[in-house]
Records
---
Amino acid sequence: MSEISTLGEFGLIDHLTKTIKLENSSTIKGVGDDAAILDYSGKDSRVLVTTDLLLEGIHFDLTYVPLKHLGYKAAMVNFSDIYAMNGMPKQITVSIGVSSRFQTEDLEELYDGIKLACERHKVDLVGGDTSASVTGLTISITCIGYGKEGKIVCRNGAKNTDIICVSGNLGAAYMGLQILEREKALFQNNNGEEGMQPDFAGKEYLLERQLKPEARRDIIEKLDKAGIVPTAMMDISDGLSSELLHICKESKVGCRVYEDKIPIDYETAVQAEEFNMNLVTAALNGGEDYELLFTVPLSSHEKINEIEGIKAIGYITADENEKVMVTRDGAEMTLKAQGWTGF
Ligand code: ADP
Ligand code: MG
């Protein structure tokens, strides 16, 4: 292992960024000067910018999150925010605060994850900032992308009778987190005894959903191909219930969703049973799935049904006070925001 101090700040930046190849025509100049240079002069494009701050101990726990996964996820959640605007991510900057417990190899791992995410989503890493820290690891990523004028989707466009749709399935990332937390607690109760191996067999899917989320570029591309522009859209980071309430509030509408239509993976259901947890509560309130929640006009119903990986779960209503989930037995429940945050 090599101390970061042997490279120094500039040596470290160079070490981490020297292999980067720029892929996008909108990237004129990347790492190496006082600022990156981007060209977004296309007439029909708008620039989208989003940023995220991740603090050790608040947003991630390095006792069970490998650094490569952390880097991958940190980049991915930013891409997800750009996709949620119906845009395409193109550049990121990465700023890190690093305490002395980290070695050069640790940061290499972190950057391997970031670079892999960038490669998969054709995004250029164009800059950042680096500083020493006394409070563990801090990562802030800013993502820049574009959206076509007239096709950018905000949270406030949902209309009465629109269909509410979600991609993929919900609650899996939350279950993955519960498994990791359980193993951590077991490990600590055994005082970190030698030879104690966490029992993750058969849980790979749930762990992957927590540790290695995939931003849904594929859904944005499928919608575009089908000629569908959602009326409102968000990515699901805090749980379906909370995000749906955001769309209703911003759009000044209500909603009715159906419990039996909420997509839940079989493994999520098995795990909920093992933990004696209410499955629907996990699917409604579990965070970090990074799926897309969006609304489309009723006239797009058939087209939506034909797209794999998208499920209609209910519809928008005119009554702003109506935030209803219809349960399996036909009862009505009011949706509440129980999205979890670090606070
Ligand atoms: P400044 O003194 O202007 O802040 P730096 O010495 O911090 O410049 O950065 C030099 C170059 O390296 C810049 O292009 C900057 O964007 C880039 N850079 C700095 N830190 C990082 C990092 N952690 N990841 C990627 N690029 C970085
Ligand atoms: Mg700097």
---
Amino acid sequence: MSVLRHDWQNPEIEALLQLPFNDLLFQAHSVHRRHFDPNAVQVSTLLSIKTGACPEDCKYCSQSGHYNTGLEKEKLLQLEKVLAEAETAKARGATRFCMGAAWKHPSRKDFPLVLEMVKGVRALGLETCMTLGQLTEEQTSALAEAGLDYYNHNLDTSREYYDKIITTRHFDERLDTLAHVRAAGIKVCSGGIVGMGESARDRVGLLRELANLPQHPESVPINNLVKIKGTPLENVEDLDPFDFVRVIAVARILMPASYVRLSAGREQMNEQLQALCFFAGANSIFYGDRLLTTSNPLASSDQALFARLGLVPEGSQPSALPHQGATRQFHDAMTAS
Ligand code: SAM
Ligand code: DTB
Ligand code: SF4
């Protein structure tokens, strides 16, 4: 096992990002194998529990009230609807259910229902994750008491690039919420987005901030920007796909024991690119036809990809089973409902 470091410096990370591609992938994959079963992938399903009209101005987001993206807004969903979606996700083979709300922070009025959602989803035997924006210490403790397993709160980009992307909040406020989450004993899910016109130096900065947190996030989602019509980033230049793989690989090396999630943007990737990401150390995905407001690969395409690559969803059956059998079970579970 590698030692977990929290003192990474920019030049070291820059050097990793610039390694010849094969050297970088070999190093990342070696680290990956030392810490994880290289053929197991954690599978989460996402649901938007409150959609659109967000007061924040994140330039990438379909849900910001500052841009005209044509998105239909929705109030906070009813508990029954959320539980029904969670049951479907479970029947299809997901082990974690992630609920996202387009809020700057949860309101006093909505918070009790959010707590009920955590309890209800947990009672179904799923891990729970929420992403609700900024939290106070009191709210964080209440979520912990309700049994929340993970809180997703992304740093999104480097400190230096932050105000080019979001002006309605500060980078340090994100760190404050992450500290509350950690202190309350909830597992941390924090990552970022690439392909927003940032420089390689910004990618280094984002990765350094994540790796130098007092404790590495248990889960690190790496999102490739999904370009949304009507947002300021709708026409930003595509990131070289190999540079995306490099970010995954460096996240794996810096945070060897964390799950690295190949997150938004998979629909725009071919299977070969996704396979490279898995080789580079990605071991978690969002599974299901929708992310929050945009589409994700069809469940059937992911089943086929897993089968072709001999990947197995973590936690859905004993890992001792031969891959083909295990993959068939995953397929059966995923197509059951
Ligand atoms: N409102 C809360 C917040 O921002 O913390 C939670 C929901 S927000 C939609 C969760 C994350 O989704 C963002 O931090 C961002 O990383 C990711 N995201 C949003 N829009 C995206 C897009 N168009 N492409 C890629 N990732 C995106
Ligand atoms: C994360 O890092 N990515 C997810 C989840 N955490 C909440 C969200 C991706 C959103 C992609 C754009 C959309 O569907 O609106
Ligand atoms: Fe709101 Fe979150 Fe979208 Fe930013 S990323 S506009 S905070 S929903």
